[in-house]
Amino acid sequence: MTSAPFGTVAVEPFGDSAVMVTVPHAEQAIRRSAIVAFRDRFLAHRPHGVLDVVSGLESLLIEFDPLRTAPEHVEYAVRLLARWAPGDGSELPRAVREFAVPVVFDEETGPDLVSVAEEVGLEPAELVDSIAKSTFTIALLGAAMAPMMDGLELPKPVRRRAEPRTDVAPGAIMIAGDNAIIQPFPGPTGWRVVGRTPHTIVDISRPDPVSFGPGDVMRFVPVTRDEAAELDAGFLLPVEVSL
């Protein structure tokens, strides 16, 4: 382990061409915020031979080309970056962006809404109210740049589906544990689907396919189907940009 401005970093081999980086700490919030901070630093100073960086809620998988570099070189770079405290201002945190995401919550857009409400001991309307009152912080961008968020405030964590759905619509609002995520494209999921936003979350035709990133904040705003139809719900933008 190596001391770092944001905690400590542990580096473990992960097969022959990857290492796993974690931040050992008793508090989950610190583990998650620290690994995001280290990910930003690592990507800003990407070492030679690194092929991909895969973010987890509390981990960072660094994949490298073993013909171009060696595990010990990657580990050395990780530990060096963890110790390094730059003074040139290059790592000043960017401003947090806020998003108000309109969502239709009903049994068609949210086929798991009723079952989740029963599971956590709430009425469906109470579940929607709790989701709307939760403040979600993006922890990482998952598959297809989907925003994976912390902050769901319910009486207890939500279980995943025993049988995953095979084709969930884009814009689906999904929850599991104390996390939420928005489905960018049609596809399968084991998360519980509770609603849908009319906004486009990811647009690969744009220079910047997403408008959000780790650390940004989202709130889900319940709307009716008629209200959703009247919205100019194109590409999702931050509150200050969309107004």
In brief:
This protein has 243 residues and is α+β, with helices and mostly antiparallel strands. The protein contains six helices and 14 strands.
Structural overview:
This protein is an alpha+beta fold. It is built from six helices and 14 strands. It has helices spanning about 30-45, 70-85, 115-120, 125-135, 225-230, 240, and strands at about 1-5, 5-15, 20, 50-55, 60-65, 100-105, 135-140, 145-150, 165-170, 170-175, 180, 185-190, 190-195, 215-225. Strands 6-14-7-8-11-10-13 form a seven-stranded mixed sheet. Strands 1-2-3-5-4 form a five-stranded antiparallel sheet, with helices on one face. It has a two-stranded antiparallel ribbon with strand order 9-12. A hairpin with a 4-residue loop joins strand 2 and strand 3.
Summing up helix and strand content along with how strands pair, one would put the structural category as alpha+beta
> How many distinct beta strands?
14
Strand order of the largest sheet: 6-14-7-8-11-10-13
C-alpha Rg (nearest Å): 20 Å
Element-by-element helix/strand order: EEEHEEHEHHEEEEEEEEHH
Helical content (DSSP H or I, runs of 4+): 10-25%
Enumerate how many helices there are, as a single number. 6
Overall geometry comes to elongated
The main β sheet shows up as: 7 strands, mixed
Strand content: 25-35%
Helix-strand blueprint:
Blueprint: E1 2-4, E2 7-13, E3 18-22, H1 28-44, E4 50-55, E5 59-64, H2 71-83, E6 98-104, H3 113-120, H4 124-133, E7 136-141, E8 147-150, E9 165-168, E10 172-176, E11 179-182, E12 187-189, E13 192-196, E14 217-223, H5 225-230, H6 239-242
Parallel strand pairs: 6-14
Antiparallel strand pairs: 1-2, 2-3, 3-5, 4-5, 7-8, 7-14, 8-11, 9-12, 10-11, 10-13
Helix pairs in contact: 3-4
